[in-house]
Design goal:
Elements lengths: L22 H14 L12 H8 L3 H13 L3 E4 L3 E4 L17 E2 L1 H9 L3 E7 L4 H15 L7 E9 L9 E2 L4 H9 L3 H26 L5 E9 L5 E6 L3 E6 L2 E7 L5 E7 L6 E5 L8 H20 L4
Helix pairs in contact: 1-3, 2-3, 4-5, 5-7
Length: about 300
């Protein structure tokens, strides 16, 4: 394995409240996490909007915007007079600490297995780090509760460079006049995506650095580099052990901007990605799992060493 880079500094401390985003982002992230970890399981009802507003100490308007966003992403359904119901859970949001071998895999159990080791090693290639952030924070809470006690955490993450124009998200327009208007506007959806990425990388980085600062983990490294590549899939590697791989599926959906504008867009939903698990077989280097692990680890290391740049 190549040497891992230097740990990020603590110049992000002022952004630690809820990951450094707005109240909308904080509540949205928390509800996503609660759906992911089973606090609000499939077919359950979310608390009423008034109760959610009191719970998170925000306005009803903020809660309503969050509910609209979760509804547009397909995780909940709201009906007048019948409340808000969870209709879909992320396919990678498993909560069991043991997962039998199967084709469809869960990110939650993958991250839990990594954090159960004395040395936590993770290599990640993704679009925004949103999914990873939720699971890192869950494991940080387990460490604080004394459930697990890793001695060292090493995270390397590759993200798309902000200088490249991504094919998604982008406004979906069919009217030529409307298309000209959209071309004349700043790339609102791209900037929104970058903002989401910044918030979640800050959040997970602070979560890990706080563990070291509090003396709960002797060493915690979170290194992020940027590559001039468009992610068409997400990749999670536990070097030499196992991998999760999942393609991004392009969907049509409305995206709610910070100013309340709703834009019909082509986008990818990371929370809905189907992940497949591949396991290294130490006894058979030619097995499908071993070959997959070797090839993807080689790909990641080559990008990390030759293409990636540190901000």
């Amino acid at each position: 394995m190549p040497e891992r880079g230097e740990r990020y500094g603590r110049d992000v401390g002022e952004e630690r409240g809820g990951g450094g985003g707005t109240e909308f982002d904080r509540v949205l992230g928390e509800l996503r996490t609660r759906i992911a970890d089973g606090t609000y399981p499939l077919d359950s009802q979310l608390p009423p909007q008034r109760e959610l507003a009191e719970m998170f100490d925000v306005s009803r308007d903020t809660v309503q915007r969050v509910i609209r966003e979760l509804n547009s992403e397909g995780w909940i359904r709201s009906r007048q007079g019948s409340g808000t119901r969870v209709v879909k859970r992320p396919t990678h949001a498993g909560t069991s600490s043991q997962e039998p071998p199967r084709v469809r895999a869960a990110l939650g159990t993958f991250i839990a297995r990594a954090f159960a080791q004395p040395v936590v090693q993770l290599d990640v290639f993704t679009l925004t780090s949103e999914s990873l952030d939720a699971h890192i924070r869950l494991q940080a809470e387990r460490i604080r509760l004394g459930e697990i006690r890793p001695e060292r955490i090493e995270l390397r993450m590759l993200l798309p460079a902000e200088s490249i124009h991504l094919p998604y998200p982008r406004a979906r327009v069919t009217d030529p006049e409307e298309e000209l208007q959209e071309q004349g506007r700043p790339h609102r959806l791209q900037e929104r995506l970058r903002g989401i990425t910044r918030r979640h990388t800050t959040s997970l980085r602070v979560a890990l650095l706080d563990l070291q600062a509090e003396g709960l983990v002797p060493s915690a490294d979170a290194v992020i580099r940027y590559v001039p590549l468009v992610p068409t899939y997400k990749l999670y590697l536990r070097p030499g052990v196992e991998a999760l791989f999942g393609p991004y599926e392009v969907v049509e959906r409305p995206i709610l901007l910070d100013d309340g504008t709703e834009v019909d867009a082509l986008d990818v939903l990371g929370l809905g990605s189907t992940l497949t698990r591949h396991v290294n077989d130490d006894g058979d280097p030619d097995s499908p799992g071993s070959v997959f692990m070797e090839s993807m680890q080689g790909w990641f290391d080559s990008c990390w060493n030759l293409l990636a740049e540190t901000p």
